[in-house]
Design brief:
homodimer; 16 helices; Metal-dep_hydrolase_composite (chains A, B); 2 domains
């Protein structure tokens, strides 16, 4: 039982507020009470005081779209359009290299990068999700793992039913882990059949899982579908009953006003991945329109092969700036809304809105502190919400708790992860860089 | 006399190359020789070896547009369009607060933020340039100070001739400082008269100075000029003889194809400030077209009140990603070109191409090291140029030399700056935050 005593507490719901003289009592995995120092020390005299005089305390950030394993491919394919990137570089590399070992090692790097930067939860889609889950557990992050499905065979699975079966087995294996959650994750409309989508929609309903899928990432994805099948992928999703509150539309670069209205009405979420969309020249997602339409718009980094960072501070700032610049309205996606996109809104997208994303009694203690002390890139702080949104940086994150356990202290991973990470980093230099280079030749 | 022995040296001209087994001999203010360890230790046995086994050595980054003093206004005006931002927030704040003390303290914070992040030179425009120069000297950065001119009176000066006179006096005062350079810096077409522009064009010619001016930042700047005076500001600049190789067009969000061709032919530079343009909803500069037209396109952060960071890594990455995303061509502004935009191209824009921006004999030793060791946000490094361009971060900068003097060592300012910075940071918390708040009310 601990009383966290930061300089400020960031409230994220129902409005974003900077609270003064506010402490947070955590016990086991949960936030028990939020109150003044006097209230909490009086009510819980046996609790340990954790003094955080130079820090703001806020909920951990939530990354709504990752391919964690792809950290091993960071920088292996740059300055290429999506089609070339995928077909001439990424798929051949994955075909050669993406086995369970690759996924575990890459996911360790990704989870560590994210945790050290204040991202406590990531929503992942990749082969061998069991390995990603084990990496998240070993590093200390919360994960929403994808029961990932693609129509064609890979070394991971031969056909859709096997992908699903393997995902469900992994889900069973980790069912007692409180930091492991699941989604169904069909890859994309152009790689998954109607039959498989229908099956996954049913599965999501039965198991109460989010549906995590790339959709309308590029103009050619949409136009190819129209010319081949006479319908836009979004229309196909409507026909298949996939446009509902479980759905996370990843990318959604090319969505019509009608489609945005439809998403808003259905309660679907748009996962905006601006760096990846820009870097692969997919375009600019209509986030200003989506926000105006009432869509739940959240942020993801995508994988390190197309970003090339898993830095939600930079990604969220970019999302907000792009929404303003592309709409011509500087008031769009303001700082306080971005704080919500990173936390409560992201939790809602993942169906975890009653568990993470807020500092309130009963919520899980997924918390971070941001140093707001004497550094020239920080000061002055006229407005802490603005500071976090527009000048926030991964390097400012000091401490991280996931499910009540402190996993980062003074910018260092704690526990077994502190030994694991250097091992995987050395192996990355020694082994993975060479393997990737060989395939590249 | 020192031999710097990094793991890699980044060559920036004529092509970007990652050099192995390459050391750099610096003596006094200059790079004397680049060669193998064996060559240099044999030729200069008396030189000290500086082992940098986990670092890449590259030229310091060059920030082509700043208002350093405005670091004190970071976060004081967010989520506002340019007009409101300027007229309801920034000008009233500046009117009340922007004296010499404000400029010095703000510029100390800005120069420190930039130096610690690997930016060794900044091209500044602000009132009291003498104070900015003194701050740069005290912190250890190279500065191109603006002889800043605006038509209307401020507490700094009463009318254009006085702005110019004060700027020239400051230039005289610091004429023996090798890290202080000058530009003429008329604020913008909408705040400077033809007569003043003509005077400054002559002055720039006589003194061989760059011309640093905001131009075509917003659509309304252009349309207002057309409706009031019947010509676009760019056309006015043509008429006044300002479109030449000395000119840095800052922002240039709204430039026609003809204007870009004209800039390319004249050898003018475009200073792209993407964060500021997006945040103030000014729009997206046509950088892909500008690059294709042969314009020298470089990057600036603008001031901290509209960015809200002075981080050239993030700004350059954003510039490259935006060029790809807005043009639909993922090959535009590739990683190697960005390295040049930060260094050789920026030096050229400032007329310093024979002095900074390259690691080559005879160039001034403005150098930085980037840690490329075991951190999860860094590895793997399949391609060091890509790593620097797309995953580079201020936090990775370890050491900085300006004019041969080591001003940052192990991420800390050296010498008197190590005392000065904490003083100014404390004063910022204690004094400036309160003063800004008072005006804000």
């Amino acid at each position: 039982m601990q009383i966290l005593a930061p300089r400020h507490v960031i409230q994220t719901h129902p409005t974003v507020e900077v609270l003064e003289n506010t402490c947070v009592l955590i016990d086991q995995d949960r936030i028990v009470q939020v109150g003044t120092r006097e209230e909490l020390t009086h009510a819980f005299p046996q609790a340990d005081m954790v003094e955080l005089p130079h820090q703001a305390l806020m909920p951990g950030l939530i990354n709504c779209h990752t391919h964690a394993a792809m950290n091993l491919l960071r920088g292996a394919a740059d300055d290429l359009a999506l089609h070339d990137w995928l077909q001439t570089r990424i798929w051949p590399l994955e075909g050669e290299l993406a086995d369970g070992e690759f996924v575990y090692d890459g996911a360790v790097l990704a989870a560590a990068e994210m945790l050290l930067g204040g991202t406590t939860t990531f929503n992942d889609m990749y082969f061998y999700p069991e390995q990603t889950v084990q990496a998240a557990l070993d590093v200390g992050a919360r994960v929403v793992a994808g029961i990932t499905v693609i129509e064609f065979p890979t070394r991971y699975a031969a056909e859709p039913r096997q992908y699903i079966e393997l995902g469900l087995q992994a889900r069973d294996k980790y069912r007692d882990e409180p930091t492991v959650h699941w989604a169904v994750a069909p890859h994309a409309p152009y790689t998954v059949s109607d039959e498989t989508f229908a099956h996954l929609a049913t599965l999501a309903e039965e198991l109460d899982l989010p549906i995590h899928c790339h959709l309308h990432e590029t103009a050619s994805e949409v136009s190819d579908a129209v010319s081949r099948h006479g319908e836009r992928p979004f229309e196909r999703f409507e026909r298949l009953g996939l446009i509902n509150e479980r759905l996370l539309v990843v990318h959604g670069v090319h969505l019509s006003d009608r489609e945005l209205a439809c998403m808003a009405k259905a309660g679907s979420s748009l996962v905006h991945c601006p760096s990846s969309n820009l870097k692969l020249a997919s375009g600019l997602a209509p986030t200003a329109k989506a926000l105006a339409a009432g869509v739940n718009v959240v942020v993801g980094t995508d994988g390190a092969a197309s970003n090339n960072k898993l830095d939600l501070w930079e990604e969220g700032r970019l999302a907000s700036l792009l929404a303003k610049g592309s709409s011509g309205d500087a008031t769009v996606w303001p700082a306080h809304r971005l704080i919500q996109s990173w936390t409560v809104d992201a939790a809602r997208a993942l169906g975890l809105e009653n568990h993470i994303g807020q500092i309130a009694p009963g919520f899980l203690a997924d918390l971070i502190t941001v140093n707001i002390d004497l550094h020239p890139h920080q000061l002055p702080i006229h407005n802490l919400v603005s500071k976090l949104a527009y000048s926030g940086a991964a390097r400012d994150v000091q401490d991280v708790w996931v499910n009540g356990r402190q996993v980062v202290r003074a910018q260092q991973l704690q526990g077994a992860a502190a030994q694991l990470l250097p091992e995987i980093l050395r192996k990355t230099q020694r082994v993975w860089q060479t393997r990737v280079e060989k395939v590249g030749r």
